Each structure stands twice: as structure tokens, then as C-alpha cells.
Amino acid sequence: MKWIRERDALIAQTLAFVQSVTGKTDDLHPPAPPAAAFAVTTEIVTVRALAVEAEPPPARPPPAPVPPPRSTGDFRSEMQARIASFKKHQERFEREREEYCAATLTRLRAAIRDPSTRPPADK
Q: What are the residue boundaries of the structural domains of the chain, listed by start?
């Protein structure tokens, strides 16, 4: 369970860092002593901002024109075309199933009527 100790040490380290940066102490969680393997060091560095005149950003090209929204009639005709295509697909599948079923039943009936083509029964 070494990872638990490492996790607890990391939490303590983070808490100590936050307290040193903000200057506030957490009343709910008193600071835990840092583990011997981890040393907490903080260094506050002040950075001075230099006043530099920046060039204005280059002008952006105008955004691409957005196509106008489709009218409801166009959407309706597209949906009707898709539905018609779907119905054609379903009718084709139904027709193919019927043809396959009829062909299978025809072969089965022919095999029942003609006993000479049946394989011999092994007993």
C-alpha cells in the first residue's frame, strides 16, 4: 500500500503549497507533517510587466457565408424520397424471401415424392 502513503504525502504537499500561496489556513484539515521523502519548498517570484506596444492583430478574413436554412417543402420532399426508397427496399426483401421460400418448398416436395434421390437410412 505504498501508493496510499504517496497519495497522502502529495495531498499534504499540495495543501501546504496552497496555504503558502494564499496565506490562509484550512481550519477543517490541519496541516499534516510532510513525509520524510518529500520536502515542501516554495518560492514566490514577482514578475514585472513590461510596457510593450503590441502591434494590432492582422485583420481576419470575413467568415464564410452560412447557407440559408432549408425551406420546409424541401425537407418534406427529401423525407418522402427517403421513405419511398426504404419501402422499395422492404418490398424487394419481402419478394426475395417469398421466392426463396417457394423454391425451398418446391425442392422439399420433389424430394418427398421421389424416394430414389433420398440417401439410404443408416440403421
A: 1-42, 73-117
Give the pLDDT confidence of 14-69 residue by residue, as tens digits.
888 888 888 766 565 555 555 555 555 666 656 565 555 667 777 777 777 877 76
Are the CB atoms for 43 and 20 separated by under 8 Å? no
Under DSSP, is residue 96 helix (H, G, I), strand (E, B) or coil?
helix
d(Cα 64, Cα 61) in Å, to the nearest integer? 9
Q: How far apart are CA 38 and CA 12, in angstroms?
A: 10
Q: Is residue 21 a contact partner of residue 40, using CB atoms and an 8 Å limit? A: no
Q: Is the dihedral of CA 29, 33, 38, 42 positive or negative?
A: positive
- Cα separations in angstroms, 17 against 31, 61, 114: 11, 46, 93
Between these two residues, 27 and 104, which has the higher pLDDT value? 104
d(CA 7, CA 60): 48
What's the pLDDT tens digit per position in 64-84?
787 776 666 688 888 999 999
